[in-house]
Amino acid sequence: MSSHHITLTRYLIEQQRAGGRIHGQLRLLIEVVARACKTISHAVNKGALGGVLGSAGSQNVQGEVQKKLDLIANEVLIEANEWGGHLAAMASEEMDTIYTVPNRYPQGEYLLMFDPLDGSSNIDVNVSIGTIFSVFKKPEDHAGVTEQDFLQPGRNQVAAGYCVYGPQTTLALTVGDGVALFTLDREQGTFVLTQDQVRIPEDTREFAINMSNQRHWAPPVRRYIDECLQGRDGPRGKDFNMRWVASMVADVHRILMRGGIFMYPWDQREPGKPGKLRLLYEANPMAWLVEQAGGSATNGCQRILDVQPQKLHERVAVMLGSKNEVERVTGYHREAGQTQG
Ligand code: P6P
């Protein structure tokens, strides 16, 4: 590895030395999560050869079929993080309740939430998937840890990121000083800094949404997409392209790299739910990463990072990416007096 390559460890130590937002236990937490992502990447890359494809024969709290790799990834993250002394508890899309660090290990000051393997529907068909994580500090006003401690608005996050398992295995990280990308050097087994201070273009010609739900959307979303589809002869005066990987990590990574808008809005298929995606371990970390890269993230009506969670596995409508597009579709919601995204 050439000397100019900065590894994740060196990056974190230099950030800590510079008096940034990274110190002791948080640096350990990020390194442990990154190491767990390396292990998950290895399991994902084995595919059929590792006997890890297919269903685990169980359902998660969302009532979704769990894939074997969902459970493997979840176990890897739990086992990697529980002994280090940096965490008080963890929460996962794959676990109904919070996981408190066992008494045999020291309790730390942080709370870790994650979707261990997002995009499960793509696992068996070899399309990019990923791990999403979010970190809060545990409230200091009481001993012990409860689910209530996790119900903080996303603006309280102290670290957030994802690891996308695609043609490259790439870790995206923010601690509030912009977004850095690290690519896994498989020969050395280390994450190497490949981009710092990522910036999302404020305008875009590319939207990401599941078009098969079009008839179910609320009017502001239909208006926004209809205008994009009218292209240069319509009110937008330009043609748009569409992408939908059905792996939020892959779609968001593309947006960090070249701009775009990602939308999973409320729709009338399940009107009692604000959206499909989960607030604590999908929308919040992705929203912070996008904002730290100069983009915006709302639920159609308010900043995602200002949403006050009421439940651990709460869902939320998501519109995020290039600032001017997110502001436009959010404006359409306000004009329509739309109460939810
Ligand atoms: P649909 C994956 O299951 C996920 O949670 C996100 O990663 C992705 O953006 C979305 O759901 C895909 O949903 O309804 O298009 O399959």
Written account of the structure:
This protein has two domains: 188 residues, Fructose-1,6-Bisphosphatase, subunit A, domain 1 (Fructose-1,6-Bisphosphatase, Chain A, domain 1); 135 residues, D-Maltodextrin-Binding Protein, domain 2 (3-Layer(aba) Sandwich). It is 29% helix and 23% strand. The chain has seven helices and 17 strands. Strand 11, helix 4 and strand 12 form a beta-alpha-beta unit. Helix 4 packs across helix 7. The longest helix has 23 residues. It is globular, with a radius of gyration of 20 Å. The model has no long low-confidence stretch (mean pLDDT 95). 6-O-phosphono-alpha-D-fructofuranose (P6P) binds next to loops.
Q: Give every kind of bound small molecule, once each.
A: 6-O-phosphono-alpha-D-fructofuranose
Tell me the number of helical segments per DSSP (H or I, 4 or more residues long). 7
Please indicate the percent range of residues in DSSP E strands (runs of 2 or more). 15-25%
Low-confidence stretches: none
Give me the CATH fold name of the largest domain: Fructose-1,6-Bisphosphatase, Chain A, domain 1
- Averaged pLDDT: 95
CATH architecture of the largest domain: 2-Layer Sandwich
Taking the alpha carbons of the first and last residues, their distance comes to 47 Å
Strand order of the largest sheet: 4-3-5-6-7-8-9-10
**Total of domains:** 2
